[in-house]
Amino acid sequence: MTTSVCHRVVVVAYDDAELMEIACVTSAFDGANRLGASPPYDVRLVTPQGRPVRCASGLVLGAQAALERTRGPVGTLLVVGGPGHVAAARNTRLVEHVRRLAAIGRRVASVCTGASVLAATGLLDGRRATTHWAYAHDLAQRHPAVDVDAAPLYLRDEHVCTSAGVTGALDLTLAFVEEDHGPALARTLARMMVTYLQRPGNQAQISMFVDAPAPKHRTVRQTVEHISERLDGDLATTTLADYAGVSGRHLSRLFLDQLGQTPAQFVRTARAEAASHLLVSTELPLASIARRCGFSSAETMRQVFLDHYGTTPSQHRRVHGPRRTAPTASSPIPPAGGSERHRADGRLQD
Prior knowledge:
Blueprint: E1 8-12, H1 19-34, E2 42-47, E3 53-54, E4 60-61, E5 65-66, E6 74-79, H2 85-90, H3 92-102, E7 105-111, H4 115-121, E8 128-129, H5 136-142, E9 147-148, E10 154-157, E11 160-163, H6 168-181, H7 183-192, H8 218-229, H9 237-244, H10 248-259, H11 263-281, H12 286-292, H13 298-309, H14 313-320
Parallel strand pairs: 1-2, 1-6, 2-5, 6-7, 7-11, 8-9
Antiparallel strand pairs: 3-4, 10-11
Helix pairs in contact: 1-6, 3-4, 6-7, 9-10, 11-13, 11-14
């Protein structure tokens, strides 16, 4: 079986790269091959001068080719991240060869802080790009011409893709497999790798419920805790202001200063995330989930979900939710597209 030019994958690594990101990418493409991807992927790990690289974990990884001697054509050029990304981005020789290969690549991508290397080539100038949330501010400071968005798991701007950290590499690679070979193979691969089927690129990297520090301001912190414990209650801004003992205008100022969003926006996000959790972890009807999460109706939940995740609750459940029977190799795989089912009277079907 021959390998198509568009399926040649060049993975660029360097000292102090993140081994898990390399493994996510290369193992996923290899898994696609073992599931019958045709044409198969030809994956090459390239490093400066073809030397072995010492990964951030201390393990040493051998290269298959030297970056400097790698020639086209290239289907996918992908730069991984890791603690060594700063030194890699300052290595003018490495950056120049990445720029050279990017010019002949069908698509170019980075994982995590590998975005620093792509940014150093100038390829991200004027584009939206993401990286690990903890390094997004630094990337934006170093490269003001890049429109950095720390929220999504991955972003695509024309033929250039950037992704979040570590396991975000797997989400991006599954998206590539789906693009190249269709959703059926990508979903089978995701099940084989015991991972999500598959997380959409616009899904947030981190949840507001586990996002690091709690608000420093006592009033905001207590109000946030109150919201998280009473999602099905009355959480209008005036009600929350009464609870906090301040005016609605002052509470909004505090939320904007501490959280970057108004109380109403925070409540909508909290309810959307709670609904997302119930959709994938239970088989409750949509109307029941809507009530538990404080939405006035399943239709209201649907609109908020569309705004927040870019997909409907039903589609989210079909892709990520529980299955009554274990899938087998011969089981039909649900289509990636589709819309909410409606009853004959036009109402949403639970």
